[in-house]
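Moderator note: this is an archived Q&A kept for reference. The question asked for a predicted structure of one protein chain; the sequence and the answer are reproduced below.
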Amino acid sequence: MYYSKLKTKISFIIFLFITLLVFNVGFSVVEAATFFLSPKTVDAKIGDFIDLEVRINSENQGFNAAQAIIQFPKDILEVKSVDTSPTDTIFNFWIDGPRFSNEEGKITFLGGTTNGVVGSSIQILKIVFVVKGIGEANIVVSDAAVTASDGSGTNILSTIEVARFDIKPTTIKIEPKIPTIIREPSIVKNLPKKPEISISLYPDPKEWYNSIDDFLVKWSLPLDISGISTVLNENPSFVPESKSEGIFDTKIFPVLKDGVQYLHIKFKNNIGWGPVNHYRLAIDTMPPLAFNIDVLKGLKTDNPTPTILFETNDSLSGLKHYLVMINNEDIITLENGEYILPVQDPGELNISIRAVDMAGNIRENNIILEILPIKSPVITFVSENLFVGEGGLMAEGIALPNTKLLLYIKDKKEAVIFSMVSESDKDGNWELVYDEPLKKNQYFIEVVSQDDRGAKSLFVKSELFKVKERPLLVIANIEITQFWFFVSLILIMSIVFSAGWFSYQLWRKQVGRKAVIAQRDVVNILNTIKNITNKMLKNYSDRNISRNEAGEMKFLLNKIKTKIEKTQKYIIENIKEIGK
């Protein structure tokens, strides 16, 4: 069992890889698909056959592959067949299965279609069960995936809905569930009017629908109505039997098959049965047939307006229109399968086409179309030495003779500063002259050729060139602009001022040191004089001077004289330095 699951997953991965190679990006994708079974509920008895349809609601998103494991109670149900005929499935190839095992109570499949499809009730396959036991039989879907048809392999499955079968014994008769109204009808003089029917799932009897489910029918019930008769069949003018089912104003009908059916309803009162309302119910869940997209002159062409051809039909509701989208841009609606593209630039185009039928089902296809460029022009000259506010930009080059040229001046951020249309001469020469002043920036020239058909070349760009300020002078091949001149002048003045300020501060420090030295010398000499004087006065305190004291005083006076003379010289020199 493990290896079987592994094989299935590997097969699915291989299939996704193939779809990535084959299919291309189309309409935008979101995760919005619902995997469901129809009918969702069934009341049955032993021996009955039940047709279970596996369907996908892709909610306007294209898909081209799906896989799932469907499990059922093997003691209640038995698979008789799994139908994959063109009327029972949209898929046209199968990677794995569909296979079923009544012993395991399991059905597996992995398949796809070569074209993407869109719809609210796209049928994948039909399973035929036979009832062999009683009880509640839940049909469960697991390991499911729905792959977008955009080339990305995205799983867009968001919801899985299961089904439930209520199996009764064969002796119990299953009656339809009708909410009967018990009342006494009023007496009138005229026959009932035609019933006014309302069906929310199918609100307009003139339209086609692709949704299927058990559907509720409502009608207004006049007070005189004493009986109602309803029939659902394919006869547009059928008259129901004049036999009342009771009095009720709603009734649930089972899932419809593809095609046109009619709900016939009539009322009865005391006079008799009134006219019948034949309500048309048109169901189409199959998308239009697969189709190819052809391009006149091939998928690679230098024609800028190629013609694409496509055609399909829808056998049931009929084709409504086509939707064409180029490179995920605006959607174009067409009534027929021919479209001439507007002028296209060179490069790859992703063309996505959807065929939509009257019920809203969609078949889609995609191609990659490559528009080839014509010969590119050449830029041979671009002006140098362009200055702010002066203009004078020129460019020259060579292109195909007598060809229109689209010329652009762009800044380095690719903003268009100027554009013009020119034409090459008979020799292929062309030029661009732009005399308007440009701001200081970096620019480049961009050129593209275009012929009479509108076919274009690839864009050709020049090297970046600068627009700068004109210099005031040139020194040794160095350009000095007005800006840098004033910047330099300010810088020099700043340097001179700084040097003067530092010199002044240094001078002040030197003067301060010399003043301190002079002050120190003055203090020293005064202290010396003071000390000597005090000593002499001490010796003279007795008013008698001995011979020794007279000699000592003479020595001290000579010392004072020498000290004064020496200190005088240093003080005078320091005062002169301070004065400077």
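Archived answer notes: The chain has five domains: 2-168, 197-283, 293-371, 378-468, 485-579.
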